[in-house]
């Protein structure tokens, strides 16, 4: 039986809600984006069952967070719908006043990394690897282009985007991507301790106000930049030979043939 694209679990008396990414490689598809948007909107509602919610956690099913976004859905004919929906999801995640945390083990790449990057905090174990390998397919990551330079040193952000080089958990912690790194096999225990010590004793409403205050500048930057980045991607990049060739070569498992145009 296939795994659910997004399953939802609650703990700590309903104060913590966890969204678990599923499917092969926990790949971010348009269908997953639709589900996540609905779940995040529900969590962001301060009334009803969401009133006492103090933390949202996003994690991947199994030993990896996510291999990234669907390459098939980035081809012409689909990307025009998929990309704006994904960008809207990131905007809604950034604007969610409930604190958000990405729990990362294993590979956290491409659109999966961008999803984690939009969370207020990232906790990982030492198996984690973060990266935006889009350039190897002839494209670029719009969300990471907006968020990475706002979170870490510009030189590191630019290198990651231009080279596609993944960074280890230790380096991610050192440059400011990850809040905490713990040994493999201890992440759930460490995270549970953190929740009990730093989240549960706080007022849910006060946590929402603090989140809104702390993320105000990042929200504004993303809103200012993402429309232009989306236009650059859809209106110019996807009209080039090399962008489409890189995607198709990856799917066909063959070497790409760049025309440098």
* Main sheet: strands, sense, barrel: 6 strands, mixed
What is the level-2 CATH architecture name? Alpha-Beta Complex
Q: pLDDT under 50 segments (min length 5)?
A: none
CATH-defined fold name: 2-enoyl-CoA Hydratase, Chain A, domain 1
Structural class, by secondary structure, is alpha/beta
User: What form results from the Cα inertia axes?
Assistant: globular
Average pLDDT reading: 96
Task: Identify the CATH homologous superfamily.
Answer: 2-enoyl-CoA Hydratase, Chain A, domain 1
Order of helices and strands: EEHEHEEHEEHHEHEHHHH
Radius of gyration: 18 Å
Overview in brief:
With 261 residues, this protein is of the alpha/beta class.
What does this structure look like?
This protein has about 260 residues and is of the alpha/beta class. The chain has ten helices and nine strands. The chain has a single domain, classed as 2-enoyl-CoA Hydratase, Chain A, domain 1. Helix 1 links the parallel strand 2 and strand 3. The longest helix has 21 residues. The model has no long low-confidence stretch (mean pLDDT about 95).
Question: What is the topology?
Answer:
Elements: E1 6-11, E2 16-21, H1 30-44, E3 55-60, H2 79-94, E4 100-104, E5 107-109, H3 110-117, E6 121-125, E7 129-131, H4 142-151, H5 154-163, E8 167-168, H6 169-175, E9 180-182, H7 187-199, H8 204-214, H9 216-236, H10 241-252
Helix pairs in contact: 1-2, 2-9, 3-4, 4-5, 4-9
């Amino acid at each position: 039986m296939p795994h659910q694209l997004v399953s939802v679990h609650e703990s700590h008396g309903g104060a913590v809600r966890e969204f678990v990414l599923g499917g092969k490689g926990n790949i971010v598809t348009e269908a997953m984006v639709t589900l996540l948007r609905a779940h995040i909107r529900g969590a962001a509602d301060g009334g009803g069952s969401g009133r006492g919610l103090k933390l949202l956690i996003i994690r991947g099913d199994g030993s990896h967070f996510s291999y990234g976004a669907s390459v098939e859905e980035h081809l012409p004919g689909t990307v025009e719908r998929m990309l704006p929906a994904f960008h809207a999801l990131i905007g809604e995640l950034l604007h969610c006043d409930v604190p958000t945390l990405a729990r990362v083990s294993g590979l956290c790449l491409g659109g999966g990394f961008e999803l984690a990057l939009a969370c207020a905090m990232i906790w990982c174990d030492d198996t984690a690897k973060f990266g935006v390998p889009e350039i190897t397919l002839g494209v670029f990551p719009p969300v990471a282009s907006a968020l990475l330079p706002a979170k870490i040193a510009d030189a590191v952000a630019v290198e990651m985007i231009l080279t596609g080089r993944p960074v280890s958990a230790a380096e991610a912690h050192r440059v400011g991507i990850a809040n905490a790194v713990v040994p493999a096999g201890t992440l759930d225990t460490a995270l549970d301790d953190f929740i009990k010590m730093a989240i549960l004793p706080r007022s849910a409403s006060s946590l929402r106000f603090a989140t809104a205050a702390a993320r105000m500048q990042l929200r504004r930057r993303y809103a200012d930049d993402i429309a232009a980045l989306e236009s650059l991607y859809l209106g110019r990049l996807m009209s080039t030979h090399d962008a489409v060739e890189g995607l198709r070569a990856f799917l066909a498992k063959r070497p790409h043939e760049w025309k440098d145009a």
